[in-house]
Design goal:
heterotrimer; A mainly alpha; B alpha/beta; C mainly alpha; A: 2 domains; 73% helix; flat; C: mainly alpha; MetI-like fold
Chain lengths: 373, 444, 304
């Protein structure tokens, strides 16, 4: 009996110690150092036996709490976490379920396709993103072309309504008024549309009606641009969408794999018993997957709180910090300008704390749901 | 038996591990071979990168007793690594750095030596005096030797385009503003800037605008609390930015324009003026391996002009342009004074800053060197025009991310974008920047 | 067997079908479009790209690839990337399974605290790790180097065990994979019936035997999951390797690709071809192993 216990202990050590050692080396030291630094005023130079630095207490944390940019980043992160957890997981679940129940053909193919995004390097996504929505990019070009064609017709109509017998353009205040009225708001961007148009028509009227139309269209037609990317609440949406696109595939694979572990007999007998689809879903499939769902939620929370590469490549946290998240905020403090090691480490610690809080909440919710049954 | 097997296995693993550690080979303690670690900022998009290897190789060939270990990084990778180096207090022996700004920590912690005594008066006399001005170096002494003087506001002008529309090069803001309808009617942007990165507006235009209204000394005063950003002179400068957006001189679209997109747009005639720093000239040069260029040398000669930003209404310091010391190499202070390593490092510096190498960089179009004895015979027209631009600029003012602390200029960057977006008024913007400055002063 | 009765019929079935197809086609399009766009544009010269970012190339330029390969020294970087990815993911997976097995099937009081500690690792970001790891490895190398110098084994400056060494890089990568690996392994192995383990123990098997002969084969699904998660991640990893090495001949592909976008301009032509070169093995990996993946996931289902 004793021998068995000894053997158990030895095996345990054998299997655990290598991982533990590597972990301590790679992660433990950074965690501890991070925590210590966050309480200090270290600012570079030799850490041990060099520059003088000391433990200064919680002042970095109080700086954080008083910094509106910190709360801004935190809010964006919470936004991200919520959409990720309540977006990626349900979507992955629904798709997995539909594939599993053979509602959709070619499950393997779709699994694979949805996996591709995680393989594409973030740099590509960033470049593409910037180019697609650039003011000179394809989307703007297409929309502006459509707008311009329609607008040209209107300008042409107005001009044709102001010709004299010889077919020459009569430049008077009525013409100007009609031109401005095609789209008064866009015209107001010219500052003082009336005087601008008057001067312009006087100096550049070439007699060629088509040329004049073209010039006037350029002047007056409202230009579309992806300005929604500049608005505070809205700018995060594209990022959320791209994040969804990147990660749903992974959850799909996870959920599907675990669904396929369910004993098909159970499903058969349930269907034979005449159970409805929703009952099967609620009482067989979901409970079996509750463990995986919890794990995925945890992974999702951890992932969305620490996401950096994607957002940095797409918007850099801007413009004007409206898409900045904690990891970018921390990057700014750590690597731009004078590296502020204590502050950036304080941010790290805060991120870990938030993760733990959110995970704790998730676990509590799951316990309650399980308790209900 | 099992235990012996275990021990043997352990030894095997250990030796494997150690052998990987010694993959460099065990050096014989023969001779005076000195190892120099160098961190260089350099990427494949720099003009003449293919010649860069040769530069270092030549040094190796001429100095067989110096073992040069070079590390080439750029952009964020560079800054991340530097941050790590600073935290460990263990800089490379010779490294590329900024006179302040992003290398401030190096200056503040005196992690590099004073180059004045090391390089000597005689060697330094080869460089223009502005380069040796230590006042603007973060450390107060010659921590790095600037390879060039960097003018951060240059108005690249498509002269050919203007002429074809019957327009002339503007000398005042009013003239520039008057061009907007004509340009717009022809589907052309007036002033193009790549404002997606928030530092661009601040470094490449606002620094000059601010300098024109408040001058230089004002910024020394604001750091001591003698004047405030909320004072009318500075708000006037912020107002000018808002005016430019409102007048359509700069399109609000530019806030979505990524940095790499701009040169192509300007070169293909989509904008009449392009505002950026002097480093952007290299985007228009001929690529030596392919022979292609965004703006051919012929066109550079006839159609391109580099003009100072037009006179602003109510400016107090006309003609001033924002400029800062360029980057350069410094020597780590961890090297023992008088050691063979220090001698080797100085040798490397003198080689890099020699007139032959600096001449080469000039001809490749990399920058205009601070070294005096270089000739501009074999350069492309745009480089010549750049040298002319430097020569005609009457006075210079600070580039704000060299003059202000990061905790302040990052706020300035942000509010400038907000002014462009219309989500902040100049007064509110000034107040926010002042708040950051107050915090900074309090922590001194 | 019961493939037929798995179908959902009726309204929800149809609705579900349409919904699923819409989503999947949309996502698939978003996945394929960038790759195709990237490949097409990698055949444009940088100048042409800068003037026309959307259309087809006027002249198809092949030199981008040769140029990128040569200038970026991709032959070295490619090999390095393969070494780093294979070794770190492979070793980390085995270690994770071992530890997960020990936690799940061997009773010990130490499990709870150690496990909690390990899980903390999942919450750390690369940026948090970067600077401390650098400090750690450079100090270690310096310290050990001094030691070896006094022992006359070699010169201190030549000692590279952790910094600027393949060993160090692989070690750091393994460390970054372990938390997730152990977490997933533990959860998965918990689901393997303990009776199997106990029965084998009664038959006199050692834990080693149990692990290699029983647990490992049954863990194919979780191994595949880990591979899917981590291989692309390590292949594209950039920040940690930048910190750990400075020598060119130890760098990996992402660093090489990164060099093509500088401050002055971006050499789009070469950068794109570099990205395609980097993307290619990943796509290949996915195409080759797609069958394996779905098979083994399905297999795990039947056995379970």
């Amino acid at each position: 009996m004793l021998n068995k216990e000894k053997e158990e202990k030895k095996a345990y050590r054998r299997f655990v110690i290598p991982s533990l050692v590597i972990f301590i080396f790679v992660m433990a030291f950074p965690i501890i150092l991070s925590f210590i630094l966050s309480l200090s005023n270290f600012s570079g130079g030799k850490m041990f036996g060099g520059s003088r630095w000391k433990i200064t207490g919680l002042q970095n944390y109080s700086y954080l709490f008083s910094d509106s940019y910190f709360w801004n980043a935190l809010l964006n992160n919470i936004y991200l976490v919520l959409i990720s957890v309540f977006g990626q997981l349900p979507l992955g679940m629904i798709l997995a379920y539909l594939i599993y129940r053979k509602t959709v053909k070619g499950g393997e193919f779709w699994q694979g396709i949805l996996y591709v995004p995680s393989v594409i390097s973030v740099i590509v996504i960033g470049i593409m993103w910037n180019l697609i929505f650039s003011p000179y990019g394809p989307v703007s070009q297409i929309i502006n072309n459509i707008n311009t064609t329609a607008f040209t017709k209107e300008v042409m109509a107005v001009l044709n309504g102001h010709l004299d017998f010889n077919g020459a353009l009569v430049v008077n205040s009525s013409l100007i008024k009609d031109l401005v009225n095609i789209n008064a708001q866009a015209a107001s961007l010219l500052g003082d549309p009336v005087s601008v148009l008057t001067t312009f028509l006087k100096t550049s009227a070439t007699g060629d009606l088509e040329e004049t139309t073209r010039l006037l269209t350029n002047l007056l037609c409202p230009k579309w641009s992806a300005s929604f990317l500049n608005e505070k609440g809205v700018a995060m949406l594209p990022i959320l969408f791209v994040t969804l696109w990147c990660w749903t595939g992974m959850y799909l694979i996870l959920f599907l794999a675990n669904m396929q572990k369910i004993d098909p007999q159970t499903l058969d007998s349930a269907q034979i018993d005449g159970a409805k689809e929703s009952t099967i879903l609620r009482h067989i499939i979901l409970p079996e997957l509750s463990g995986v769902i919890l794990n995925s939620a945890i992974l999702c929370i951890a992932g969305s709180l620490s996401t950096f590469d994607l957002i940095y490549a797409m918007t850099g946290g801007g413009p004007a910090r409206i898409t900045q998240v904690l990891s970018i905020y921390m990057y700014e403090k750590a690597f731009t300008g004078t590296p502020n090691y204590p502050l950036s480490n304080a941010i790290s610690i805060m991120m870990v704390v938030f993760s733990l809080v959110l995970i704790g909440i998730t676990k509590a919710v799951q316990k309650r749901l399980e308790g209900d049954r | 038996m099992k235990n012996i097997k275990r021990i043997l296995l352990l030894l095997a693993v250990l030796s494997l591990v150690l052998s990987m550690g010694f993959a460099e080979g065990i050096e014989e303690n023969s001779g005076e071979k000195v190892t120099l670690k160098v961190l260089n900022y350099y990427d494949t998009t720099e003009p003449g990168y293919e010649k860069e290897r040769q530069v270092w190789q030549n040094f190796r060939d001429e100095n067989p007793n110096i073992d040069l270990v070079t590390e080439d990084l750029c952009n964020e990778a560079f800054h991340q690594k530097v941050s790590a180096y600073i935290a460990s207090g263990n800089l490379p022996d010779v490294m590329y750095m900024y006179p302040s700004g992003r290398s401030m920590a190096i200056h503040e912690n005196k992690l590099v030596k004073d180059l004045k005594p090391l390089l000597g008066e005689e060697f330094l006399s080869n460089f223009v005096s502005t380069a040796l001005n230590t006042k603007t170096q973060g450390s107060g002494y010659l921590a790095e030797l600037p390879q060039s003087i960097c003018y951060t506001t240059v108005v690249y002008t498509n002269k050919g385009l203007l002429t074809s529309l019957g327009l002339k090069i503007p000398t005042t803001y009013e003239e520039l503003k008057a061009m907007v309808p004509t340009l717009k009617a022809n589907g052309i942007q007036t002033v193009l800037m790549a404002n997606k990165d928030d530092w661009v507006m601040q470094s490449c235009l606002f620094s000059t605008i601010a300098g024109r209204y408040v001058g230089t000394k004002w910024f020394d005063d604001v750091k001591m609390g003698k004047v405030k950003f909320t004072d009318p002179e500075f708000v006037q400068a912020l107002n000018m930015v808002k005016t430019m957006y409102d007048d359509g001189v700069i399109s609000r679209n530019t806030i979505q324009l990524a940095y790499g997109e701009a040169p192509g747009l300007f070169a293909s005639g989509k904008a009449a003026f392009f505002v950026d720093g002097d480093w952007k000239e290299s985007a228009f040069l001929t690529n030596h391996t392919t022979g292609e260029s965004l703006i051919s040398p012929a066109k550079q000669e006839t159609d391109l002009a580099l003009i100072p930003f037009p006179a602003l209404p109510g400016e107090n310091y006309p003609g001033t342009v924002s400029s800062t010391l360029g980057c350069g190499f410094g020597i780590s202070s961890a090297i023992t004074a008088g050691s063979a390593k220090e001698i080797a490092a100085v040798k490397l510096m003198k080689y890099l800053y020699s007139s032959e190498i600096q001449q080469q960089y000039l001809e490749l179009g990399r920058y205009v060197p601070t070294r005096k004895d270089v000739s501009a015979k074999k350069v492309e027209p745009i480089v010549k025009k750049m040298m002319g631009y430097y020569a005609q600029s009457e006075s210079t003012c600070y580039v704000l991310d060299s003059a202000l602390d990061p905790s302040v200029y990052t706020v300035l960057n942000k509010v400038l974008q907000e002014i462009g977006l219309g989500s902040k008024t100049p007064k509110e913007a000034a107040a926010e920047v002042q708040k950051a400055m107050d915090k900074y002063i309090a922590m001194q | 067997m019961s493939t037929k009765s798995n179908k959902i019929t009726g309204f929800w079935g149809n609705f579900g079908r349409t919904f699923a197809y819409i989503i999947m086609i949309l996502f698939a399009f978003m996945a394929i479009a960038p790759v195709i766009w990237l490949i097409i544009n990698s055949f444009k010269s940088t100048i042409e790209f800068q003037t026309d970012m959307v259309g087809m190339p006027n002249n198809w330029v092949v030199s981008n690839y040769a140029g990128a390969w040569k200038i970026g020294h991709f032959s070295i970087l490619f090999v390095n990337s393969i070494i780093y990815t294979l070794f770190s993911v492979g070793i980390a997976t085995i270690l994770s399974l071992m530890t997960g097995f020990a936690f799940a099937k061997i009773k010990s009081k130490a499990t709870k605290p150690i496990y909690s500690l390990l899980i903390l690792g999942i919450l750390l970001t690369t940026q948090t790790l970067m600077v401390p790891i650098f400090i750690q490895v450079s100090q270690l190398d310096m310290g050990l180097g001094q030691l070896f110098e006094t022992l006359r084994i070699c010169r201190a400056s030549d000692f590279h065990l952790f910094y600027n060494s393949r060993f160090g890089v692989i070690l750091v990568y393994i460390g970054s994979i372990l938390p997730i690996g152990i977490y997933l392994s533990y959860e998965y192995i918990k689901g393997i019936p303990t009776e199997m383990v106990e029965a084998s123990r009664i038959d006199g098997a050692t834990y080693n035997l149990i692990f290699f002969k029983i647990i490992l084969p049954m863990s194919k699904p979780i191994m595949i999951t880990l591979f899917l998660l981590k291989i692309p991640q390590i292949w594209n990893e950039f920040a940690l390797i930048n910190i750990m090495v400075s020598k060119l001949n130890l760098q990996s592909l992402p660093l090489g690709i990164y060099k093509f976008s500088g401050t002055f301009a971006t050499d789009y032509g070469k950068q794109f071809s570099a990205l395609v070169i980097g993307l290619f093995p990943m796509l290949l990996f996915y195409v080759i192993f797609r069958k394996q993946i779905t098979e083994s996931i399905g297999e795990g289902a039947v056995k379970g």
